[in-house]
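Sequence in, structure out. First:
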Amino acid sequence: MNDTLLNLVQLIISVLLIVTILVQVRGQGTGLFGSSESSFRTRRGIELTLFRFTVFLVVVFIGVSIISVRFF
């Protein structure tokens, strides 16, 4: 039961992580592997929030993965 619940949580987090990464890539420019601009810019507003949410999802995903392997 707990193993199934952890697998479901991992699945949901991984889908959210994929979506947030794809949204960030879509906002970067025309190319998939980088922006057409070579200048440095800082993240602001929704872009910063989305970046922080992505980092949070990665940390939670790694934590759930460690718990899944360690205890089940």
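Second:
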Amino acid sequence: MKSYLIPFFLLILQVAFGQDQTAKINDYVSSYVKSGDFSGCILITAADDILYKNCFGNANDSTGTLNKESTKFLIGSISKQFTAAAILLLEEDGLINVQNNISEYFPNIPIAEKITIHQLLTHSSGVTDIFNIKGLKDLKREDLNIGGLSKIILREELNFEPGSGYSYSNGGYAILAYIIEAVSKLSYGEFMKQRIFEPLEMNHTGHANVLESIEDRAIGYDPIGYDRRMKATLLDTEFLKGSGSLYSTNNDLNIWIQSLKFKSFLSPVSYDKFFKNHGANYGYGVSLYSTMDRDVFGHDGRISGYIADYLHYKEDDISIIILGNIQTGTADFFRRDLAAIIFEKPYSTRVKTAQPALQSPIDVSLLEGVYAFGPNFKVYIDYFDKRIMARANQGAYSELVPLTDSRFFSRTLYSFIAFRMDESGKVEKMIWTNNDGNAFEGIKE
């Protein structure tokens, strides 16, 4: 869209975006609130104007406190672009060079000589994800800090030779957090506060230190059963530094988006690196791609108890920000469907309608096992706590809820799962269907 047409488009949009669109969004989101699958806040802006804002559900079930405009949510992997900005600030200070290897910070680990800061930023280093580390949930900060975790990550086998591929890695961003602390002589949270959040007046954003009480912070919940939720057990945020430890509000994230849009905070050279597609539609901590025939930037985030997502439509100057405090897969398609309402494209609610079954339609003992969806992607089915649970590789478990139509439903991923049996009555395949209708088959090993 030509730049001189943007103000005219926004004027038309702001006039047209009235009660009808607001009602459509409210009805759409409320369907998931009623099903127990969304709780949180949504903000949609066009340039400097607010098109839509609303909050749904409880910030705290035990007190009955409602989510509101000032509620703070953990933002998961949206944290990565703030980590990337911190690294670029240190480069602007002349303290690091993103093309240098990281051996200076890990002199006794030989593989560090092969890995550059740039590769960590772009997920091209080959280092493992922190969630692939066995016993991660048992780590305690009194025994191990982010530096110790970084050394464990670097001693794990690489996924590929550094610079030769792409593999999304929270581990790489954990290492970046340690480098920020080592170079700045400040804690990760304090550096973010002093160099990014205070200058931008993001006064409701910070590092979620588990040892500190945060005013107006929403309690995070994980789904249980068909429509209930339970308080989430959080991994110590010391080990989420860099990759997913920050909290924020919709309004603060909008401030951040504005700074990115106008390129007003970092240097032009830094923004060139930040917004360049270095492969796999990824810049420095930010996703870059096209949707609905429009170029966007943004990121999603997920952490136990929370979901987060934002997309900025560059030509239209429209931002959609979603923050929630129940970890379901809703944000993955909220961003698509809310944009469809704004741009008057087809959309539909995909809220679950199949009813829960009293028991599994298939003997649980037949379901348990490992299903291979590829050489490096396996789904494990186990039964414990009287629930059928699934996890991918070394990731977290999500419950599979039996349905009356003989399928199962994962609220965490908002997907339907079916099992296919052979002639002898043994389970041979898992068929996983995402909310968008795409289906994948896993062969039982």
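Remark: Residues 74-342 form a domain with the Beta-lactamase fold (CATH 3.40.710.10).
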